[in-house]
Design a protein that fits this description.
This protein is α+β, with helices and mostly antiparallel strands. The protein is 28% helix and 21% strand. Helix 2 packs antiparallel against helix 3.
């Protein structure tokens, strides 16, 4: 074995990893916590370089952590895990879940809009955020709880992904039926409960419903299915007379059958 520089390199590579220190059981273990799951849409797009993705991660964490603090949520009351293209945030049961909707969603949307207005395309951030509530239990390697799985499935909802792609919204915020009924439906602040759309979620083994809210949309609102587009509307007939006109029999302007039953 080479005992020079390559030998030094070998010793570093072969060095065993230090074992993780044991964790103390947090006070919120097993209690109903607010679970916020965040994901950057299109994070792995091939048009992004590693430098672009570093910039996107920096922006995402800055926007997320600033929005939490601006919403009156102390970072000391949160537990966070990085997920590469996003983050999992567990919020203490002592923090009202309603504050994670309003003002948090509004703060997130506004901060993303400010960034995206001036950012070049490769470092713009379109964020999907899911919110649910349930018991969470930490273990030696991370976290466990059905609520984490549910939140992850909500974040992957095809309806949410499609809405973001169609509208170009900065933020897609989706909540469980419990969060909507217990908190969103009773909001009286800047965010209108009527801005949440009911959707069906079918992801992997999960089939459920949810409510989603978009912020910072740039495309035109989608038409109601009952409202025809201009291209579908029947052309209106027009009749113009010039000079002397002689009529024998019926003269019908428009559709003769329109008033027939």
């Amino acid at each position: 074995m080479d005992t020079g520089r390559s030998g030094a390199f070998t010793r570093i590579v072969d060095a065993p990893l230090d074992p993780a220190p044991p964790r103390a059981v947090p006070a919120w273990s097993g209690l109903n916590c607010s679970v916020l799951f965040c994901d950057v849409a299109g994070f792995g797009d091939p048009s992004r370089t590693d430098g672009d993705r570093r910039a996107v991660r920096e922006v995402t964490y800055r926007v997320l952590l600033d929005a939490l603090e601006d919403s009156g949520i102390r970072l000391a009351d949160t537990y966070r895990e990085d997920r590469g293209d996003g983050a999992l945030v567990i919020v203490s049961p002592a923090v009202p879940t309603a504050s994670l909707v309003d003002p948090l969603a509004g703060r997130l949307g506004a901060a993303l809009r400010r960034h995206n207005d001036i950012a070049r395309p490769a470092v713009r951030v379109q964020l999907r955020v899911a919110l649910d509530v349930g018991p969470v239990t930490p273990d030696a390697e991370g976290l466990n709880g059905q609520v984490i799985i549910r939140a992850a499935r909500l974040m992957e909802a095809p309806a949410l992904k499609s809405a973001l792609a169609e509208t170009g919204a900065d933020l897609g915020f989706i909540v469980s039926p419990f969060v909507y009924e217990a908190f969103v439906a009773h909001l009286d602040g800047p965010i209108d409960p009527g801005s949440f759309e009911h959707v069906t979620v079918r992801v992997k083994e999960t089939t459920t419903s949810a409510w989603m809210h978009l912020a910072g949309t740039t495309a035109r609102p989608r038409r109601s299915p009952a409202q025809p587009s201009p291209a579908q509307e029947a052309p209106r007939a027009s009749t113009v007379f010039a000079g002397e006109v002689q009529v024998r029999g019926d003269l019908v302007l428009g559709d003769k059958t329109v008033n027939e039953r």
